[in-house]
Write a structure and sequence with these properties.
This protein is an alpha/beta fold. A five-stranded mixed beta sheet has the order 2-1-3-5-4. The protein is built from eight helices and five strands.
């Protein structure tokens, strides 16, 4: 059995976080050299059954389509993970709740297990919460637009962070975010691991 498939079957039975709203959302269990980390599923991903299945996903996959992989091929060739795998619920005044420290800690072993299984050559953390799991960051302008050599779960790899593609955020649509996003996408496009998955059989 694909070890990632077994991992995901176990992950879907996780009930460690009582405030999180299931189901657990996972991507395709593909043994990929590229590993994408999002923040957490949104309200609609539970019904859709896949990560980045709504508005933010349209923007994200639009970015990747520009550098060689449309959504369908991306989902087949890249392992899509998240800091937390269940929907955190809504904030009292609207918007999705950000997972708390305990919830992030509860989910971290799943992420670390995947990194150890995949040994990815390239990690793409999307949004500040995901980036913070890979490297220190206070402001996005400090890390987006650059490649970073990191160690995650004991695995040495490259990380190229991206901003969150949320429609509520203007960061990636205004300067300097717009230019830094383009630099990051160029770095991903030029990375050997990206070239490998672009050339892979359908």
């Amino acid at each position: 059995m694909n070890p990632l498939l077994h991992h995901q079957q176990t992950l879907r039975n996780c009930t460690l976080c009582p405030s999180m709203i299931g189901p657990v959302i996972t991507g395709t269990p593909v043994l990929s050299p590229v590993y994408l980390i999002g923040q957490a599923p949104g309200a609609r991903e539970g019904d859709i059954g896949r990560p980045f299945g709504w508005t933010a996903g349209k923007t994200l996959f639009g970015w990747f389509s520009r550098i060689g992989l449309d959504e369908e091929r991306f989902r087949r060739r890249v392992y899509i993970a998240a800091v937390c795998r269940c929907f955190p619920g809504k904030k009292p005044k609207g918007g999705d709740r950000v997972p708390n420290g305990k919830e992030i800690d509860n989910c971290a072993p799943w992420l670390h297990a995947e990194v150890k299984l995949l040994k990815p050559q390239l990690i793409i953390p999307v949004g500040k919460l995901a980036i913070q799991q890979c490297l220190p960051v206070t402001r996005l302008v400090e890390v987006i637009g650059s490649a970073h050599r990191i160690s995650l779960a004991g695995i040495a790899t490259d990380a190229v962070p991206l901003p969150h593609p949320s429609g509520a955020s203007t960061w990636h649509r205004t300067e300097p975010g717009k230019t830094l996003l383009e630099r990051a996408l160029t770095l991903i496009h030029d990375h050997p691991a990206w070239n490998e998955i672009c050339k892979a059989a359908p």
